[in-house]
């Protein structure tokens, strides 16, 4: 065993674990990345995350400039401040990337997600599911005698709250888009 390793029953730290607990705090960040809309770009961006063991909590991508052939990738990720800075620096060095914005640190932004939520139930469960859908402003986009599919747009927290309430009422299935986000204000 390494001489610097923690001895059994000792309070000493290993030389390999000298970070303070403050360095370990993880934060969730929303990154907006403008890239060329060409094959393989998304795979390269995602490869950066998977190759370094970074997790992606949410991912959306769509073409936003048809004439300029550009797409916006919105990624929600969690990590320590150092990891987030490393992710941004590595993304900015990629050739098909035009710009990277950390919406979380750059100021106010609007982030929304779309979810489709299937709930099966009859009687009181069905009535309660419909009542709660009104409270959350969810739309019924499909209905049978035994089930509904609700469409809900909002923050991830709002969607999670609705899903949690639907669980005891007969939640069957959930499909989510991931967060789409833009910085507030006139600048693009």
Automatic annotation (TrEMBL):
UniProt name for this protein: Acetolactate synthase small subunit
First-tier enzyme category under EC: transferase
Keywords (A to Z) from UniProt: Amino-acid biosynthesis, Branched-chain amino acid biosynthesis, Transferase
E.C. numbers: 2.2.1.6
Cross-referenced Gene3D superfamilies: 3.30.70.260, ACT-like. Chain A, domain 2 (3.30.70.1150)
InterPro entries, per database record: Acetalactate_synth_ssu (IPR004789), Acetolactate_synth/TF_NikR_C (IPR027271), Acetolactate_synth_ssu_C (IPR019455), ACT-like_dom_sf (IPR045865), ACT_dom (IPR002912), AHAS_ACT (IPR039557), AHAS_small-like_ACT (IPR054480)
Subunit structure comment from the entry: Dimer of large and small chains.
Pathway in which this enzyme or protein is active: Amino-acid biosynthesis; L-valine biosynthesis; L-valine from pyruvate: step 1/4; Amino-acid biosynthesis; L-isoleucine biosynthesis; L-isoleucine from 2-oxobutanoate: step 1/4
One GO biological process term: L-valine biosynthetic process
Catalytic activity, as annotated: 2 pyruvate + H(+) = (2S)-2-acetolactate + CO2
Residues in ACT domain copies: 30-105
One Pfam assignment: ALS_ss_C
Family of this protein: Belongs to the acetolactate synthase small subunit family.
Function: Catalyzes the conversion of 2 pyruvate molecules into acetolactate in the first common step of the biosynthetic pathway of the branched-amino acids such as leucine, isoleucine, and valine.
A GO cellular component annotation in the UniProt record: cytosol
Highest taxon in the source lineage: Bacteria
Gene: ilvN
């Amino acid at each position: 065993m390494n001489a610097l390793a923690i001895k059994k029953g000792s309070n000493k730290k290993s030389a390999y674990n000298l970070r303070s607990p403050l360095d370990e705090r993880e934060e969730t960040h929303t990154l907006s990345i403008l890239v060329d809309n060409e094959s393989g770009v998304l795979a390269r961006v995602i490869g950066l995350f998977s190759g370094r063991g970074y997790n992606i909590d949410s991912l959306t991508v769509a073409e936003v400039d048809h004439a300029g052939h550009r797409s916006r990738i919105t990624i929600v990720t969690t990590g320590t401040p150092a990891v987030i800075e490393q992710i941004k620096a590595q993304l900015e060095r990629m050739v098909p990337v035009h710009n990277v914005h950390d919406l979380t640190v750059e100021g106010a932004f609007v982030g929304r997600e779309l979810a489709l939520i299937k709930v099966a139930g009859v009687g009181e469960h069905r009535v309660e599911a419909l009542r709660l859908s009104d409270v959350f402003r969810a739309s019924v986009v499909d209905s049978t005698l035994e089930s509904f599919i609700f469409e809900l747009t909002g923050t991830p927290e709002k969607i999670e709250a609705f899903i949690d309430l639907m669980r005891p009422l007969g939640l069957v299935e959930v499909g989510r888009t991931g967060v789409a986000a833009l910085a507030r204000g006139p600048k693009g």
